[in-house]
Amino acid sequence: MTDVSEMRPEVRRRRKAERPQEILEAAFAEFSRNGYATTTLDRIAERAGVTKGTIYVYFENKEHLFISMVQESTKGAHETVQQMFETHEGSTADLLRAQFSFIYRHIVEDTRRREVVRMLIAEAPRFPELADRYYDEILRPCLDLLKRAIQRGVDRGEIRESPIVHSPQVVIAPIALVDLWMMMFEERQPLDLKVYFDAHLDLVLNGLLAK
Known about the structure:
Elements: H1 9-38, H2 41-48, H3 52-58, H4 62-87, H5 92-108, H6 111-123, H7 128-155, H8 169-185, H9 193-208
């Protein structure tokens, strides 16, 4: 085994840069296997091959590590959907169609993200502060982005003013149903995601667009 002291400086820098990701991977494995309550930082450190003190270099505590793990599973998708909003020049219907198409390809079909959702549902009643932090740091920015997309359509006369403008949860509720459905019935009652996506988009656009 190579002594760390014998590593070239660039190798040591690369290993240090990779360490947070390795800790997040270990955290996902432990949290998904044992749940939030019984998972310890000691177990995560052991799986990641680092000391417990190393975890504290990058993460404040177990809650921060858990939320960071959730953020990692959604970060790329959120950034892409936000970029779509900021650069789109066509109709709001086309914007929503593109955003929802991406969401279904990269979020709904992502089994790893679904495992994170399962953990959150299981742990939220016992750890409401965890649910609050998830809402503030992850869910609320997504809802705010959807509100902005809908408001864009209202401002352009493409979307009618309605309660949905202020309750975007209604628009994305079918995505939450996909998660629950696939957790419970994926093997026995599988969804045709293409047909489901078309039905979801039809419902959204016909409910939102000005006649």
